[in-house]
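Re: nicotinamide-adenine-dinucleotide structure - here you go.
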Amino acid sequence: MRIAVIGSGYVGLVAGTCFAESGNTVVCVDVDEKKIDGLNNGVIPIYEPGLDEMVKHNVKEGRLSFTTDNDTAVKASEIVFIAVGTPPGEDGSADLQYVLEAARGVGRAANGPKIIVDKSTVPVGTADLVKEAAESQTKYRMTVVSNPEFLKEGAAIDDFMKPDRVVVGSDNENARDVMHRLYEPFVHDNPNKIIHMDVRSAEVTKYAANAMLATRISFMNEIANICERVGADVTRVRSGIGSDGRIGMPFLYAGCGYGGSCFPKDVQAIIRTAGEHDYDFEILKAVESVNAKQKFLLFNKLMKHFGGDIAGKTFAVWGLAFKPRTDDMREAPAIYIINSLLEQGAKVKATDPEAIAVAKEIFGDKIEYCEHPYDTLDGADAMLLVTEWSEFRNPDFDTVKSRLKSPVIFDGRNIYPKGELAKQGFTYYPIGSNPAVNEAHKSADPVRA
Ligand SMILES: NC(=O)c1ccc[n+]([C@@H]2O[C@H](COP(=O)([O-])OP(=O)(O)OC[C@H]3O[C@@H](n4cnc5c(N)ncnc54)[C@H](O)[C@@H]3O)[C@@H](O)[C@H]2O)c1
């Protein structure tokens, strides 16, 4: 099939490349000339494992190309995916200006009827607006399909090539068949993974999925906050509840809050959609406010440890990206933590395997960047683990201790062995268990950490 993908960011670039990988001819479009120039010179604008090789392979095979020329790309394609950003507007609703501009661009360029696929995460009813916007610019009929994307940054290629499910929302039989054929190569193990439904249900599905996942995180964070107060350990509670088949283990980790380009904005957007339809989405409002507080939890623990005065102190921050295996820092907890430290007059030395370049755009020279994690520790009053990159999981704690000014670790992702750290003389602050309270509550025959 001949496909145009408008918007060559995390989603558009991955989707376009994976469609090319399955034999389609794909042109990825973007308004960002620098990005397209880079792509045409083999420079991949984002860090995503496996993407670089796949892009280069498909470009070489002549199935994948990049352009800023929307008209030519649309004219050459039967299907046009819209994968531009939908950032939150001031009131929390999804800002559709990029989606609707892309839709008008399809209409302006159309040389016949087209299937337009909404890949961007958009509020219910957007497909109608996209159709209207595109058809306002052309005499041809546009068919709009909702095909929300569920890939996870850091595992995007795998998620796209081997999806759990593909949601296709369409009220048009031909478009439904075309989408089914397009996705069949990705689900050959089980074609039932392509779930067909009406457009509006597909639009709601994406928000419902992200809202559910965000809810699990905030729920566990509240359980963690209780555990800390009552002498329980959230990691054990997680095993205890996650083993229930109705609950399951994934997305039950307590931590220092969720970030990223999706959960925060999608939770806000569905709250807003509910409000517009005269419904108060109470659970999600709580999910959001729990998360907002959780992003300051490590900082608050740190302030308490240092008696409320950290001016002039130095802190080592391990992890800047909002999660491992990506360079994406949108809404990352690290931003909130670092800004709070700086506001209190502290110095920050930070490291991340992939996100330092992005962090430089955010913090400039306000913080020090270290390529090697250990270099952040020299002269630091404590270490804060913010993103659980695998290379941070097993540091040599003798080295960590010798290079830190004082052996204090604030672990925002519960990745370190608390028993061992205590033995080695660290003061260790995990999330969801409080070693001091736990000690006081230990029975005569305790289960050791
Ligand atoms: N990032 C994720 O993990 C993820 C996962 C699922 C869904 N989504 C959704 O997918 C959409 C895209 O997200 P993203 O993370 O890829 O965004 P992004 O910001 O990385 O990329 C968007 C791209 O669109 C380009 N663009 C904007 N207007 C354009 C236009 N008129 N024509 C051509 N290009 C244009 C921008 O220059 C940018 O390169 C959002 O709605 C997001 O919510 C994202």
